[in-house]
Write a structure and sequence with these properties.
Order of helices and strands: EHEEEHEEEHEHHHHH
CATH superfamily of the largest domain: NAD(P)-binding Rossmann-like Domain
Strand content: 15-25%
CATH class of the largest domain: Alpha Beta
Oligomer: single chain
Helix content: 40-55%
Distance between the termini: 60 Å
Number of helices: 8
Length: about 250
């Protein structure tokens, strides 16, 4: 059985705790966080603590904290023999302390407290410095996910960037669309079928060929009308930048 110490109390830590807590072959023996109140969701864990000086011995230490804190937190494990991993998509394996067994255990998914994640469908990207540690991480990842992917720090950094485009930026565009609908007195949910169909096409079809809209047609009149409707300068800039990028991408077809 793999023994796990979880470090962190945020969204990723809580979701991992829920996902791993009832799995055969895994036992979370301790959760550590700086804020005692934020340890409340982990009340069923055998041990919770704010004391980084009394960390249990474990097979794997999962550091699920913000990127800026990873190196500092990893220094607490220099006297431990277990594998120390972080969960960041953008930080390299080398951000961890030099003197520890180092690895990465990155879930490629948007994670929030409000929605429980089904990790069986989430790619877990792993990285380690030895074949032994790769197998240890693969064993852990296979207990919660059907998609385990070996990935270098450079590859993961690029994938994380791609994820920002398809998730974070897209979500902001949904927000803009919501505001436009609100101003027009139309419920945003009227766009739900369009959102779902677009996502389906992105996962099933050739993404380039799936592009539609006035920019891909170079419909200047429609785009001019759209810009006139936007009172927010930032939104006009976003519309223009994206439309120009689409036009340039597809200009050979025009």
């Amino acid at each position: 059985m793999l023994s796990i110490v979880l470090i962190g109390t945020g969204n990723v830590a809580q979701q991992f705790y829920e996902a791993m807590g009832n799995k055969n072959g895994i036992k979370i023996i301790q959760v550590i966080g700086r804020n005692k109140k934020k340890l409340t969701p982990f009340a069923n864990c055998p041990e919770t603590s704010t004391d980084f000086k009394h960390i249990y011995d474990a097979d794997i230490y999962i550091i699920a904290v913000n990127d800026d804190s990873i190196n500092t937190v990893s220094q607490h494990f220099t006297n431990k023999s277990g594998l120390v991993v972080h969960t960041s998509g953008s930080m390299p394996l080398s951000v961890l302390a030099d003197s520890v067994r180092r690895g990465v255990f990155y879930p490629l998914q948007t994670i929030s407290k409000e929605r429980r994640i089904d990790f069986s469908e989430v790619p877990i990207c792993i990285e380690a410095e030895s074949s032994e540690d790769y197998e240890l991480l693969r064993e852990l990842a296979n207990t919660i996910s059907d998609q385990v992917q070996t990935m270098t720090s450079e590859q993961r950094k690029s994938v994380h960037l791609a994820a920002v485009f398809v998730n974070n930026f897209t979500n902001h565009l949904y927000h803009i669309g919501n505001e436009i609908c609100d101003e027009a007195g139309v419920p945003f949910k009227i766009l739900n079928p369009l959102i779902l169909e677009t996502a389906k096409k992105a996962t099933q079809d050739n993404i380039l060929n799936a592009q539609t809209g006035p920019a891909v047609r170079n419909d200047k009149l429609t785009m001019k009308k759209h810009l006139a409707l936007l009172n927010n300068k930032d939104y006009r800039d976003i519309y223009s930048v994206l439309s120009n990028s689409i036009r340039k991408t597809h200009e050979k077809k025009l």
